[in-house]
Structure formats: structure tokens, C-alpha cells
Amino acid sequence: MSDDPGRVRGALDRVAARLLDASVYERVGIAVGSTGLALLIGLVVVAAAGHNPLLFAQQLVVGSVGSTGAFTRTLRFTTLFILAGVAVAIAFRAGVFNIGVQGQLIVGGIACVLSILWLAPFVPNGTLGGVGLTLVGLLAAVVAGGLYAALPGVLKAYYGANEIITTIMLNFIAIGIVGWAVDGPLRPEDARSVRTEYLPEGVGLPSVVFSDPNFSILGLGLALGVVGVVAVGMTRTSFGYDMVTSGYQASAATFSGVDPQRTIVATMTLSGMVAGLVGAVFAIMVQGYFIDPSGIGTYGFDAIAVSLLAANNPVGVVPASLLFGALESSGSHVQIHSDVPVQLIDGIVGIVVLFVAAPELFRMLAKRTGLGGEKG
């Protein structure tokens, strides 16, 4: 019996060592295998609950890519997941846990809407004015999201605060304050639902290729552009190298002349800037106004699983987001066209998230705790 703890530790060390030595391709392969296994278990659960698993699987496919409307809906969710996933990946790659993307996108979204509404009376009507206001809204969201994320970065870098706790707390603060504002002083008198005023005519992303008023291929292009910029910045620049070094080896970063505290703050700020952009795209492309934050999808939280599925690689976030976008899109379709209860659908998505997140989370934990012989 006395050898049991040592055997468990040895087994954990071996698993951790293998995961720590895994290449990016192997980590992506593990994530893809985990996703396939999770979906298979989900189908077994559906069958055990007395429903037809083949019909359920068919409805998942039809609800995500079975028609032009379903496909554009999938692309809409994919666009938001790409931006949110990149925001998480930036921090995770640098060894910082930004769990506050949901709050940062809320702050970015409301900043986007307010800046547009406040400036609209001073801008001439027409296409040119609408484009100008759209750019102002995007910029305001980036700045607001970055500043909101910089706060937990400062607390971590200079005061030793746990960024997981602070970012989670800031999520609730953003939801509470913005929710009060949207249901109070920012709510129009004639509004039947909790929302701000509508964005002025001309503000938005035009529907190109697809006719869906809630999706624009330009929004997807913007998200892919962010992926490219972040991927190049993190792998081809000295700042990207400093981010990773400061997150995992602060002493080595200091020895090489890098200010680890400043770099941690910069990392969180950059992560928050991308998160703020999620809120802007949601407000401009999808809604046309801003709603009660509790009614916004959990993009910031789901993005954690998206990033982990992509092995925290910005480029890998794209296919991972497509998977989660398809699952999100097919969920409502399955509810309408099958007898599978919504709770079961949510449970299957939860199984996917759990299976995807577990290997990568264990790997990150091993880096921090020294499992597998690594001292982080």
C-alpha cells in the first residue's frame, strides 16, 4: 500500500513526459481523436436515452451544412469563435490564463455601440459616414477590451494576483454593470426587449456572397486576418518570443534583458484587444445593437475549449472554431426536427469540451508543476 502513491506519481510523470514531448501535430491529433471519441460517446448516450443515434447524427450534419442558411449560420458562429479562440490562445501560449474573454468581449461590444451612437449625430449620412462609424466602433472595442484585460495583467505581474480568479471576477462585473446599463439608462423608452438603440443605417458589414443579414463574409475575413497577424507576430517577432519566455521562464526572460512583468501585461492587453473585437463583430454584424449580456452566447467560455482543441495555435483555431460553429448551428436545428431534448444536446457538447480540454489542460498543468521532469 505504501508504494501506491509512488506508482501513481510515476504513472503521472510518464503521461506528462509524453505530452510535454508531443509535437504540435501530435497534440492536434490527440485533440481530433478526443473529439471523435467524445462524439461517439455522445451517440451512445443518445441511443441509451431511447433516441435514434443515426437520425441524431444526420440532423447534426443537416443543421450545420445541410442548406445555405445552415451553412451561413455555421460561418457566423465560426467567425465569433475564431476571434474568441485567438484571444484565449494568445494568453495560453504565453503561460497566462485569460478566463475573462467573455467579460472583455462584453466591454468591447458596449464600447463599440456607444461610440457609434455618440458620434453618429456629427457624421454625415451615407456610405462613407457608415464606414467611418464602423471603423470607430471596431477601434473603440479593441481599446476597451485591451484595457479591461490589462487590469488583471497588472495585478498578476506586479502584485502576484492569480489571473484566473481576477478574470473570472471581472466577467461577473462586466455582465452586471453592462446588464444594468442596457436595461436602464441605455434602453430606449419604446424598446420591448432589453437593448440599446439600433445602430445608424449604413453602419455594418455588407452581406457579400451570402444574403444572410446576420453574417458577412467580410467579418469572417476580418477574423482570418487577425489569425494571420497574430500567428506571424507570435512566431516571427521578438515580441512573440518574449511573450512565451516571460510566461513560462520569467527568470530566463529577465536574464536575457526582457521585462517579464511588462510582457505579461502586454500579453493580457493583446488578448483583450482581440476579445473586444468579438463584441464589436457581434454588435455590428449579428445584432445591430447591444443586448443584455446574459443573452449573449458563451463565446468567451467556449473559446477556452476551442483554443485547447487547437493546441493553443492561432492557425489551428480556425478548424477548431469551424467544429464548434457547426455544433452551435446544429443545436437549434436538432431541437426543432428531432425529439432529442435540449439538455441531452448540451450534455453531448459538454462531453466534447471535456474530452478536448482534458489532455491539453493536463499538459499545461505538468509544465507548471514539474510533472514529467519539467520545471516550469
Key features?
376 residues; mainly alpha; 14 helices
- Portion of residues in beta strands equals under 5%
Judging from the principal axes of the Cα atoms, what is the shape?
A: globular
Distance between the termini: 31 Å
The biggest sheet, with number of strands, parallel, antiparallel or mixed sense and barrel status, is: none
- Give the number of helices: 14
Assembly form of the protein: single chain
Summarize model confidence as the mean pLDDT: 87
Structural class designation = mainly alpha
* Low-pLDDT segments, ≥5 res: none
Description:
- The protein is an all-alpha fold and 376 residues long.
- The chain contains 14 helices and no strands.
- The protein has a domain at 92-313.
- The chain has helices at 4-21, 24-48, 53-65, 68-93, 101-119, 127-159, 163-182, 217-236, 238-248, 250-255, 260-287, 299-309, 317-337, 342-369.
- Helix 13 (317-337) runs antiparallel to helix 14 (342-369).
- 46% of the residues are buried.
Secondary-structure map with pairings?
Elements: H1 4-21, H2 24-48, H3 53-65, H4 68-93, H5 101-119, H6 127-159, H7 163-182, H8 217-236, H9 238-248, H10 250-255, H11 260-287, H12 299-309, H13 317-337, H14 342-369
Helix pairs in contact: 1-14, 2-3, 2-14, 3-4, 3-13, 4-8, 4-11, 4-12, 4-13, 5-6, 5-7, 5-11, 5-12, 6-7, 6-11, 8-9, 9-11, 12-13, 12-14, 13-14
Characterize this entry briefly.
The protein is mostly helical and 376 residues long.
